[in-house]
TrEMBL record:
This is Ferredoxin-dependent bilin reductase. Belongs to the HY2 family. Gene3D superfamilies: 3.40.1500.20. PANTHER family: PHYTOCHROMOBILIN:FERREDOXIN OXIDOREDUCTASE, CHLOROPLASTIC. One of its GO terms (biological process) is phytochromobilin biosynthetic process. Keywords: Oxidoreductase.
Amino acid sequence: MEQAIARLEGAMELRPYSVPEGMEGKEAVVGKGRNQQQVKMTVAAYSAAKFRHIRAALVETSGPTQVLNFVIFPDPSLDLPIFGADLVSLPGAHLICIDLQARIRFRKQLNSQYQKSQHTALAAHAQARLPWGGNLPSAAQRFFSPHCIWSKVGDIEVVETAALEAMLAYLDHYLAMAAAAEPVKDEGLLKGLAEGHLAYSRYRRINDPARGMLTRFFGTEWAEDVISHALFDLEAKVDSGAVSLAHGQELLAEMAAEP
Ligand SMILES: C=CC1=C(C)[C@@H](CC2=N/C(=C\c3[nH]c(/C=C4\NC(=O)C(C)=C4C=C)c(C)c3CCC(=O)O)C(CCC(=O)O)=C2C)NC1=O
């Protein structure tokens, strides 16, 4: 997490992003006897010129489970993907998921030949060292790009080397894309980007694979609050008017009406 934040600090002025009180972190002792373990969750959040919400969630335990979930939501008036990284160590397996997740039309978001070739090269390099993790959850597939890194490995050393390198390389590439991005004027595209951001945040809020773990560690109420108001807060922010999105309220109502 520190290395990723240092990369961001090197590229831009980070501004504090308020995390609702009590959701910045939590500690607990869970399990009994030999299964007893200390667990701790930390949420760090920032914003910046071209980024609405930069947030890292870290789950540390005295057992084998360790999680870094790092997501960057760009300013929704920029035609940029969402940066997503999930480095998850579980008993017996390490899950790695790193991607520049398209909001509308991935290929066009890599708007220069150089970016396309760069990204293709990055993905090829990473995928050579991180074996494909098998099918992604079918409902989530629409959110993943062709250059997604999705892997399951047995050796923590691979997470600490290849996975971390890949995450930082994708982050550098993403920051280069952001540096070149200009605000979108086209109303139709602005609405499309707004819809994309809301659909992504809503999917991840509803289907967060960490829900079970967070509920076991910290209880249902805190787990639900942190997922909806600290990790994937866009719907709540648009609903309260704290964030204004093109057609935001209308899109929220449409999504809420969906089966
Ligand atoms: C759009 C969807 C999307 C994802 C699901 C994640 C990418 C991702 N994360 C996964 C799994 C996964 N991810 C986490 C952790 C987190 N995942 C999160 O979004 C947050 C905020 C986490 C922690 C705070 C854990 C603990 C697991 C393991 C769950 C388990 O098996 O017990 C999986 C495996 C499949 C699954 O269990 O669903 C994927 C594909 N990134 C994405 O972009």
